[in-house]
Each structure stands twice: as structure tokens, then as C-alpha cells.
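Support request, priority: normal
Reporter: lab tech (M.K.)
Component: structure prediction queue

Hi team, I submitted a job for Membrane-bound ATP synthase, F1 sector,delta-subunit from mine drainage metagenome yesterday, and the status page still shows it as pending. I've pasted the exact input below so you can check whether something in the sequence is tripping the parser. The sequence length should be 178 residues. Please let me know if I need to resubmit or if it's stuck on your end.
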Amino acid sequence: MAEIATIARPYAEAVFSLAKETKSLPAWSSALALVQAVNADPEIRRLATDPAFGKDKLIKLFLDVCGQQLGPDASRFLQVVIQANRLDALPEIIAQFEVLRASENGVKEASVVSAYPLDAAQVAALTARLSLRFGGSIDVTQHVDPEIIGGLIITIGDEVYDASVRGKLQDMANTLNR
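Reply from support: The job had stalled in the queue. We restarted it manually and it finished. Here are the results:
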């Protein structure tokens, strides 16, 4: 996962920089969402992984499906991604672009993993505490993973706060095994 994030970061930063320069952040978000929707199609995925299909044919297929909705810069970006064999990193590129866009607007994205669903009051309290801690607006996305047993795992940007029971048990096991 870290490897994909590392691969995706320069692409996301380049697209964000271009979108910011041309004052077209919303247009880029729309274009990237369209490219991701096309990329998620099972038939497109099959062709993308078929070495016999060829990069030029794949680029033409994407551009034909997307039509004029992409624009010249987004079309060139797509061509670069396909030519560099980075289509598998596209979802992460888009996710990092959206994080950069939210950050530009003063909003930080927080992913919160809990063993059980949090109710609205708990999410509101957590959001308020995170806003105080990180100094800005926080957009919380909640995920449920019963395997963490209890507690929370909070990810904001590159920072991960593991306050889960599973994490504490793993820490204790590591300490005992030394």
C-alpha cells in the first residue's frame, strides 16, 4: 500500500499543481472521477491487463469512452499514466489529488476505523476533538472493522493514531517477544 502511495504522490501533486495554476480544481475532480469510473469497468480492466491489447489502443479506448468531457490536459495526463504503466495507481492518484484539494480548502480528511459503528453524537464529538487538535475543518469517513476489537484507528494524511485494542495487544506481544 505504501508503495502505491509513493508511486501516486508525484502524479497527484503534478495534477493538483496544474489544476491550481489553471484555477480548474472542480473540473479536474470531475475529469478524474470520470476516468476512474471508466477504469473501474470490468471489461476495461480486463483489456488494461492484457499485454496483447497495447497501450495505444488502451489510450484510444479511454479517450473514446470519455469523449470530449476530459479536455486536453486531462487527456494528456491519462496518456502519461497509461504509457508509464501506472493505471493500477489511478485510484490512489485520485485519492491523493482529492486530499490535496480538500487541504487547499482548509479541510483535512480523517479516516476513522472502529470495531462498531459510531453514532452521530460520537462522530460529532470526535470531529470536534480532531478539529481542535489539527486546527481546521475535519471531514471524517468512518469504517467498521470488528477485528480491531475495540477503540479507534485514526488516519489523517500520513499520520496514523492506533488506539485500538488489537494494536495494544500487538504492542504487548512485541514487547514480550523481545
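Helices lie at 2-21, 25-40, 42-48, 55-66, 71-83, 90-104, 120-134, 165-176. The chain has eight helices and four strands. Let us know if anything else looks off. Ticket resolved.
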